[in-house]
Each structure stands twice: as C-alpha cells, then as structure tokens.
Amino acid sequence: MAQSKPNLLQGTLSMLILRTLTRGPLHGYEIAQRIQQSSDEILKVEEGSLYPALYRMEEQGWIEAEWGASQNNRRAKYYKLTQAGRQQLASERSNWERLSEAVKRVLRTA
Amino acid sequence: MKEIKSILRNLNLFDRSGGPYEHEIEEELRFHLDMRAHDNLSAGMTPEEARADAVRRFGDYEIVKEACREISKEKLEGVMNTKAIKGIIWVILGLGLFLQIAGRNEDNSNAGLGFILIAVLARLFIFLKEQMVDRIDSRTNKGIIWFILGCGLMLRFFSGHHAIMNVGIFLIIIGVLWRVLIFLRKTQPDQQRIKTAEQIMISIPGVDTIAPEHYFIEQPLSQVPPHDQQGRTPVERLISDEE
Q1: Residues B212, A8: contact at Cβ < 8 Å?
Q2: Do the chains contact at A52 and B238, CB–CB below 8 Å?
Q3: Residues pairing with A66 in the sheet
C-alpha cells in the first residue's frame, strides 16, 4: 500500500484551531505549533493549508484577525475567537464527542 | 469601523502590484516561513537547510496565496453587497418618509407608506439573516418561528382591535420571512465549508491514507492513531486539554 498523508474528518481542523484560540490571540505559526505540541507532536498541520482555513473561518465570523507586533517585534496577524466561534466550537466539539463515542462502541463490540 | 478600514485598504485603486490583498497575505505567509526558518536555525540547521525545510513544510506557496486571495476577495464582495443593499434600503426609507410627510394627496401618502414598509421588511430580512438564522441551531430557529407564527395568528384572528390585528400580521410576516431564510440556506450547498474541508490535511505519522468518509470504518485497528493512557486519541486530547 502506498504511504501518503491521511485526512481527518471534515471540520476537524477548524475545531482544533478554534480550541487552540480559546487560550488567547495567536498568529498562524503559533497556532500550528500549539496544535502540534498539544497533541505531543502527533498531529502536524500542513502549514500552508492552515491559512486558507483561517481566512475561511474569519469570513464565517468564527475568528477575527488583527495586525500586531510579534515577540520578535515583527508585524504579525493575530487571530482571536469570536462569540460565534465559541458557539461553533461547542457545536463541533459535541458532534466530535458523539461520533468518537459511537466509533469506540463499534470498536469495542465488533 | 474596522470593517470599513479593511474595505478602504483593500480597495487601494492605485495598487498596481497584482491585487489588493497581495501585500497583507504575502506578509503573513512570509512571516510564517521566517519563523519556521528561525526555529530551524535555533535547532541547529544551517541557513540553507532551515529555509529549505521551512519551504518544504509549508507546501505550495503560490497555491496557498491564491486560495487566501480568493477568500479575501469573496469576503470583501460579500461586505460590499450587504452595504450596497443597506444603502438602497435607506434611500427607499427616505423616499417613503418624504412622500408620507410631504405628499400632497392620499396616493402619494400611500405610496410613501408602501416604501417605508418595503424598507422596514428588507432591513428586517437582513437583520434576521445576519443575527439569527446563522447563529441559532435549526431546531431552535424552527421553534421560534412556530411561536411567532402562533402569536401572530392568535392576534390576527382573535383580537378585536385593529392595531393589535396589524401587530399579528407583522408577526406572521416575520415568521414567514424567517422560514424562507432557513429554506434558502438549506437549499444552497455550504460551499464555504466544503472549501475549508478540501484544504484540511493533517498528517499522522505511520497512518495510511483513508478517505475521510471511511476513516473510522475501514481503518484497521492497528492503524488507529495512538491513544494516551486514558485511551484518548490526539484530537480528543487536544480538545479536552487544560480543562
């Protein structure tokens, strides 16, 4: 079988981004880093593909972007969670947990 | 205000460098590449290796930039369309008020009233679209609609006062408008979500590619992502982190 990159379920990346942003505003690079670190280096976001996802989420009103100064004093675009984003996270999280629980049941019993 | 600033910035008509969004997108993406290269250098790579690794991890820069540009363009067009519609509504409302107040005969006055009603309903339509339909789940939306319609019908048919009957009609109109919005939203495929999903690509070392719809069904047990001591997958671990 050819080895290549797997996909996760649709919407998973947005859920992970939203969850990561609950800790406060972050720029894109930090978001990728946090996801990777929080999952003990197991989840690696393909870094370029993070940005269209961030732009789309901003368009949907789940996050807001603002330019600010980074730690090394460079201009960076920071993303922060909106109220709509919190609601979306709650909804996606609930869906994920239901799905995950259902899969666990199948794996236990099948 | 922030939105207006963003529109003005993006409408830079004197920009001849290949597109109004280009500068900010490039600056953001280059910042990411530089940060990665910087971290690579700190990890002991040579400058060439650090840069090459940053580029490799990032993927196709031009494709990413183009995707971001398209989304920014769609967003701006959406905002402009809404603002244009709101502007037209204000003009209609102004015209209606003018005819209602300054109209010399009953026909003018009635026409003014009609314009005012159209403007109010159009504004209400946009408000419901922006504030309610997209933010409340479908079941709650439908519950509210039935409640409003019920109240409207009761007031319309069981009230003896003309003014209260009109309130009833108004509520019925709101309920119908709300339902139409939900119907329109359901019949249009959620293109934004599909596009986002297409760009999702999270790599899990050692796991073979499985189509998203078969990810959990066909994946052999041995290939399920590593679990921690509590039996949680990496995603579960991340979403429940720090709680």
Answers
A1: yes
A2: no
A3: A78
- Chain A nearest-CA distance from B46, in A, is 21
Q: Comparing C-alpha atoms, which of B92, B119, B97, B124 is closest to residue B108?
A: B97
Other Cβ atoms within 10 Å of B176 Cβ, number: 14
Average pLDDT of chain A? 84
Residue B195 to residue A52, Cβ atoms within 8 A: yes
Find the distance separating the first CA and the last CA of chain A, reported in whole Å: 25
CA R_g for chain B: 27
Q: Alpha helix (H) ranges present in B128-161? A: 138-158
Report chain B's mean pLDDT, rounded to a whole number. Answer: 69
DSSP string, chain A: ---------TTHHHHHHHHHHTTS-EEHHHHHHHHHHHTTT--EE-HHHHHHHHHHHHHTTSEEEEEEE-TTS-EEEEEEE-HHHHHHHHHHHHHHHHHHHHHHHHHHH-
Closest to A31 (Cα-Cα) out of A44, B175, B144: A44
Report how far Cα B115 is from the mean position of its chain's Cα atoms.
Answer: 30
List of chain B residues whose C-beta atoms are within 8 Å of the C-beta of residue A105: none
8 Å CB contact of A52 and B64: yes
What pLDDT, in 10s, does the model give residues B16-47?
A: 444 457 788 999 999 999 999 999 999 999 88
Residue of A nearest to B67 (CA): A52
Q: Do A107 and B237 touch (CB under 8 A)?
A: no
> Do B211 and A7 lie within an 8 Å CB cutoff?
yes
Q: Is 90 exceeded by the pLDDT of residue A78? A: yes
pLDDT tens for each residue of A13-66: 888 999 999 989 999 999 998 988 887 777 777 788 889 999 999 988 899 999
| CB < 8 Å from A in window 72-131 of B | 72, 74-75, 78
Q: What is the pLDDT of residue B138?
A: 64
Which residues of chain B lie closer than 8 angstroms to A40, CB-CB? 228, 234, 237
Assess: ipTM above 0.90.
no
Whole-model pTM?
A: 0.55
**Is B226 near chain A, with CB under 8 Å?**
yes
